[in-house]
Amino acid sequence: MEPVYDAVITTARLLWLAEGLKFKVSGVENVPVDGPGVVAINHTGYMDFTYAGIPAFLQGRRKVRFMAKKEVFDSKVSGPIMRALKHIPVDRGSGAQSYRDAVDYLKRGELVGVYPEATISRSFELKDFKSGAARMALESGAPIIPTVIWGAQRVWTKGHPKNLGRSNVKIMIGVAEPIEPAGTAEEITARLHEVMGKKLLELQDAYGEHPAGEYWVPARLGGSAPTLEEANRMDAEEQAAKAARRAEREAGGEAS
């Protein structure tokens, strides 16, 4: 029993009810009933992780330990909660410790949630994947559980206002068959990208209307979201700007 995690789940379900969110979940049987699993999730919005644990919860009330950026743990508000839920802080400047922590969790039979894309996809298409999920699977012997979410970007995503009121948004979650840790990290990563890409197309086809020009609809489907190439350029420009600001702060610190 984990009273804090159980309380958070209850609170989340009440909030989803108040928002009128409509969930359709498929592939729950692909989540292992027990034992470890690397839950690989596509990243389209800030609330993805709150929905990504639903299949595991439906599979025997299992809980997922999510890898999240260190800044969330540094907050006086969210930090104590994240630690109580046994999530894993990720320092993007030095990820070795978070990787070791994740592998340790997996070896203890836990489900660990990771974002292979690392950052939110502004295009809502799959970005290139990092190899961390595959390496964790290989080192721990845990299968990868490909998990795709569609519709979460309508609640809150990068560059757009929050939509946390009574939105009645439909959110689809699909879990594909597990990928066993066999082969090289590069081969497993390529396979994971292929499987999640197919699942994403499947969910989009089943979702219903994608209104032309809507910000949450990919350019491929007639929406106003940037293309993957445009989004990658925007991400690169943002990272360059952050690096410049960081260098400026460090230079200012040395000068003082």
From TrEMBL:
Q: Name one Pfam family in it.
A: Acyltransferase
Do you know which CDD domains this protein is assigned to? LPLAT_AGPAT-like
Acyltransferase found in the keyword field: yes
The record's SUPFAM superfamilies line, in alphabetical order, gives: Glycerol-3-phosphate (1)-acyltransferase
Start and end residues of each Phospholipid/glycerol acyltransferase domain: 37-152
Region of interest called Disordered, as start-end residue ranges on this chain: 231-256
Does the record bear Transmembrane helix in its keywords?
no
Q: Which InterPro entries match?
A: Plipid/glycerol_acylTrfase (IPR002123)
Which Gene Ontology MF annotations are present? acyltransferase activity
Swiss-Prot/TrEMBL keywords: Acyltransferase, Transferase
Question: What name has this protein been given in UniProt?
Answer: 1-acyl-sn-glycerol-3-phosphate acyltransferase
